Structures are given as structure tokens and as C-alpha cells.
Known about the structure:
It comes from Alkalibacter saccharofermentans DSM 14828. The protein is α+β, with helices and mostly antiparallel strands. It is built from eleven helices and 21 strands.
Amino acid sequence: xxxxxxxxxxxxxxxxxxxxxxxxxxxxxxxxxxxxxxxxxxxxxxxxxxxxxxxxxxxxxxxxxxxxxxxxxxxxxxxxxxxxxxxxxxxxxxxxxxxxxxxxxxxxxxxxxxxxxxxxxxxxxxxxxxxxxxxxxxxxxxxxxxxxxxxxxxxxxxxxxxxxxxxxxxxxxxxxxxxxxxxxxxxxxxxxxxxxxxxxxxxxxxxxxxxxxxxxxxxxxxxxxxxxxxxxxxxxxxxxxxxxxxxxxxxxxxxxxxxxxxxxxxxxxxxxxxxxxxxxxxxxxxxxxxxxxxxxxxxxxxxxxxxxxxxxxxxxxxxxxxxxxxxxxxxxxxxxx
Length: 337
């Protein structure tokens, strides 16, 4: 197909509808990819030299420099998403000169080492995040419920060597003469950043969830909900010509989504608060939460993930003085005030 067709993501993010909006799929640039029987629209042109690649579960950002070179913003999950990513890159004869990672979660750094091995890409990451994926031991440290064997089994693809550390004082990083602005948004993870391309498009990582992902999230994750809410409020001051959300929207205005994201956290926190009766240990509250939020746990990995999602809500209740945490008879208890 030679003609360029113009599309935009529909509100439910269930596909693409005809609309001359922000995002465009360039059919004559890349052949659509089928992975495991799924039809994947891979390369989405946002504006100028800014693109994103649809990996199915998430978007990763891409900024083209010259004819073939590019800087990638995040790399997605290992496995199928890695295949989609490599196919999109190869079909467009792109060389990934650098990777800027918004944060060190497996669905954002899962293919860092894969691309580094293919292209000798330079990896840049906030120093707090780089330490989390430095080795299997550092991954175990960030996931204390996991033994080392399972930390390796579940998350070994996260391990990567960061070449350039981004500090709290850094407000930009330059690759191949192109300046990328840095907006610090800790909370979802300790050193989460957003990256603004030279075209003025902000790639937000997980600082905000897209509309569909937010609706579907039973326990939206943040390393610290108090820090995350603060960062969401500060996003109101981030002026950009467009916003790419990893999960999974391309927007011109994020103000309504900021409100929705904060409301989701507060509503979920209220539901968690109502689970606590008298004094309860963590495990008892978690058991009630699994039932309350209709979560199915069928593996060690799923339990570890759910515990990691749930614990920050209790911490947030303690931080906001709605719940007290204390020890008694060799156990830790939570109790409403």
C-alpha cells in the first residue's frame, strides 16, 4: 500500500479509527507484522522525527536522527515484544544508537541487553534505576520476596549495563547532536523519568497510565504512592506538543488523565482501608484484598507480583496517618486509627 493513511487511537484504545489526529501509521514505511497470529501495527508516526512502536502491550518511543540512526525510549518486555521490536527496526533499516530508559521495570528494560548486543547501543538511565538492573543480585534486592533462583528465572532479562547515568540535577541528555529534555517523575519507581524529544513530544513511561490500562488496573502500581501523586501533580506543568504513554495512549492533553490517575489511587486506597478490621497482619489483609479485587493467584510469580502491587497501598495509608503499624507479640499489625 503506497498511500499514507491517517489514523488516531480511538478512546477505548481497541484499535484505530479514521481521524486526522496526532498519530499516523505510515504504511509505506513498514510492513505490518504478524506475531503469534496477532496483527500488529508497528510503527506509529507522531510528528517530525518522533515515532513510537506498538509492541502490543506497550508503546516504546523512537526518535530518528538522519536517515538510519535512532534513539529508542524504553525497549518493552522480553520475548514476543522483543521480536516485534527487532522486526520493526530491521524493516526500517534503523540502527539504534542509544536507549534512554524511563525506569527499570521488565516491561521497559526487558530488551535493553538484546539491543545492546545487536547495535552496541549506549544505554542511559537514572542512577536510581540503573542500580536496580545491574545484576541478578540487585534484582533480588528490589524484589525481597523472591529467592535468587526465582529472581533470575523471572527477571534475568532486566540485567543490563548502563553507560550513562542520569542524575537528579540533569535536565537534558544529548545523543548524536540531538537534545532530549528530562522531566523527573519519581514515584512509580525511585528514579522514574519522562523524556521529551527534540520535536517537543513527551514520552511519559509509566508516570501516567493510558485510559484503557487505568480502567483495567486492579492495583495500579507505584513504588511510593505519595511520591507518585506528587509527580502526577507536577506533570500539569509539563507543556509538550504531544504525549506518548507506554500503556497505551497518544494524547494532546493529559490533564483529564492526571485527574483520573490520582482518583484511581485514592479510590483503591479507600477500598484497601475498608478491608482492615481491628488489628490485622499483612498476610490477612492481602488475603482479603485478593478476594475483594477478584485476583487469581496460580503461581509463585503471580503471588510475588500481587504482593508487590499491594504493599505500597498499605504504606500509603500509614504515611497519610490513616492506619498505624506496630509490633506486638513478635508480629507486625496494621490497625485503623
